Structures are given as structure tokens and as C-alpha cells.
Amino acid sequence: xxxxxxxxxxxxxxxxxxxxxxxxxxxxxxxxxxxxxxxxxxxxxxxxxxxxxxxxxxxxxxxxxxxxxxxxxxxxxxxxxxxxxxxxxxxxxxxxxxxxxxxxxxxxxxxxxxxxxxxxxxxxxxxxxxxxxxxxxxxxxxxxxxxxxxxxxx
Length: 154
Hints:
Largest sheet: 7 strands, antiparallel
Strand content: 25-35%
Radius of gyration: 27 Å
């Protein structure tokens, strides 16, 4: 039985050899062209209001020790925040930041965010970007990973 298998294996290799030689390995790196990068600079203002008569973010959960924590560790917020053209909340509304964020640091003020920026005006109307990652709230420069996009951000 082993001899029959060995014979069929060798015959298969002999038959497959010319087929594999039809794919030259020397040229495979040039087979794909790199896509041209497009850089889009967006500027808008994110207004997160957690108090008052019309908050745009509300606490939906917390741990038993959240109120004792200096960073509010364990608090989870749901948000539907306006994105505006200027720093004044009354400037032109460009879209909404919708999603959730939670205080994830016990010793530093940092958030874990899962947020969609849905644009409702201008050339990006109907487009959105999705963010997921750590937001170091006290850092002077914050970068968030964009994990998906729709419309013009596809």
C-alpha cells in the first residue's frame, strides 16, 4: 500500500512540475502597484456636555468604586455629541460623534473610546469614520486609531 502511495505521489509531482514553472518568482514583487496615499485634513470641534438640562453624554454604568477613584475608573458613558465648524457650539453643525467611552485608567486619566463620527453636512455628508482605542485625556497631542470609514472615507 505504501509503495502505491509513493508511486502516485511521484507521478503527481512530475505532472505538477511544468505547471509550477509557469509562475516566475523573479517578477512577483513588481506584480502589485502601491496605491497612492490620500491625506485628508479635517478640522471640527467635538462638544461633550455631561451636565445641565440637555447633556450630550450620559453615564450608563459604573463600578462600586468609581466615585472613590480620582480618574472615575469604571465609569461608562454613552454619547451623541455635536461636531461643529468652530469652537462655539452654536457654529455650523457638521455631524455627530456617537458611541461610548469609559474611564480605563486607575492612575492616569485615560479613556477607551468606541466612537463614530457621522458627518451630516458639507462634502462629507453621509460619510463617517470609526475610532477605537485609548484616548490619553491629559496629553497635549492625542491621536486615535481610525478603524473603519464609509462614504468618502472608504
